[in-house]
Amino acid sequence: AAISIENARLYHRLEEYSHTLETQVEHRTQELHDKNRHLQTTLEQLQRTQLQLIQSEKMSSLGQMVAGIAHEINNPISFISGNIIYSRDHFHTLLELVELYQQEFTDTSVTLAEKLEDSDLDFVKEDMENILFSMETGSDRIRHIILGLRNFSRLDESEMKRIDVHEGLDNTLMILQHRLSSTGKQKEIKITKDYAKLPRINCYASQLNQVFLNIITNAIDALESCNAQVSSKTREIRISTEGTDTRKIKIRIADNGPGISDSIRQRIFDPFFTTKPVGKGTGLGLSTSYQIVTEQHRGQLYCVSELKKGTEFVIEIPIEL
Fold this sequence. Notes:
Layout: H1 2-55, H2 62-104, H3 110-119, H4 121-153, E1 161-163, H5 165-175, H6 177-180, E2 189-194, E3 201-203, H7 205-225, E4 235-243, E5 248-255, H8 262-265, H9 285-296, E6 300-306, E7 310-318
């Protein structure tokens, strides 16, 4: 009789525990769904902030803006990333207890059996893993964007420093990714890279990144301007690098857009000269780039273009300044 009473008590406790477990799982699932929505909102806010940075040519304020973004976003992302680990561990612990209960007590009440079936623990387990994975992916993506922005702006490198040119190009492409992707009206722009093995160069990193940004943005604008005319061919930007015999490196950025006439090409680096519609461009991007390359880095920046065949900008700078 004593054993029967003890079994009844144990059974009652297990029923209570099962109910508590269900409640905890539902609560945690909802909590993770809410955090995931918050993470997605944060990512969208970051992308909007990136767009504002790209549209602005006031690079002097970029460092402060990136610092603010990093501070405001890194803290909540760290909280979410850290809690994902604990959430997964706690969830697996609860699942192990449920599975142990199911193995040890096969003779359950009809009510409990129906409740377990309604709970669909197999689905909850799979769905929870998907939720946690999506949160990890989103967190990593935001961290990657923040790192790219930091590297692009080079907050701690206002003076000359040795850098990997390819890293600067890749960070610029990452920041411009939203303009390279396909949208409702614009086709995707394909990026083709042909990087040579180059030494690290001594340069003003943030200024050189600004040059990359201005030239690649100009190529994107050119391709977008003829979107309807090139519907039958792939829109493409080709980026290649090479070393020279004179201790210099060459960076070529080319597009297969409409090209430009000789008369425009001769003025393309003049301050305030632009062929873009009012409000689209200031005419300072390429002139600033020319000044950075020729004056700050004692290099060359020139343009080669042919109508209906595309445009190529060539940057040539010394490895040592």
